[in-house]
Amino acid sequence: xxxxxxxxxxxxxxxxxxxxxxxxxxxxxxxxxxxxxxxxxxxxxxxxxxxxxxxxxxxxxxxxxxxxxxxxxxxxxxxxxxxxxxxxxxxxxxxxxxxxxxxxxxxxxxxxxxxxxxxxxxxxxxxxxxxxxxxxxxxxxxxxxxxxxxxxxxxxxxxxxxxxxxxxxxxxxxxxx
Length: 177
Ligand SMILES: CC(C)(COP(=O)(O)OP(=O)(O)OC[C@H]1O[C@@H](n2cnc3c(N)ncnc32)[C@H](O)[C@@H]1OP(=O)(O)O)[C@@H](O)C(=O)NCCC(=O)NCCS
Prior knowledge:
It contains 7 helices and 7 strands, in the order βααββαβαβαββαα.
């Protein structure tokens, strides 16, 4: 398995994988939009046996304006999609892709803020995001989003603290993060 940057030619494969992990009614139209406007240097795919088994898509232009305050945050990035093939979940791929993505955002803009929307009942994803440093900002109601969700965010200050903590730990502890 290797991780590389997203290419325009990945769009069809990602869409096909997306249909296996995302809701048809609201998420697939947003996935199509994100595939059209994501930033290639900040978006990644995990490839195994020449097939895409996971991806992140990061957008500067929001796929959907849920709250206007988000559009006023400087250097703000939307983690629009993180998806791992159902047969490959639980292998640490989501964690690796997310870390690679955040590092790429940080390398582009040291004062970044990253936000995302996650369903309130997507406990696995919420746990992953919280462990990576994201915090719940706003809980959305069904009139804002298709299902109740959380807008979660990560500021560069918190990201820097997490990186600093990781570097301060002995190697055995770092491997567990
Ligand atoms: C959520 C998702 C991206 C996680 O990717 P993954 O590769 O399976 O996650 P990892 O193997 O890196 O696991 C990281 C952590 O996520 C959590 N997690 C992932 N899937 C989980 C699940 N099904 N149930 C509970 N916790 C889960 C765990 O905390 C796990 O850490 P642990 O193994 O130490 O307990 C993946 O399951 C997925 O694509 N789901 C469908 C699409 C989706 O929900 N995307 C996010 C939308 S915002």
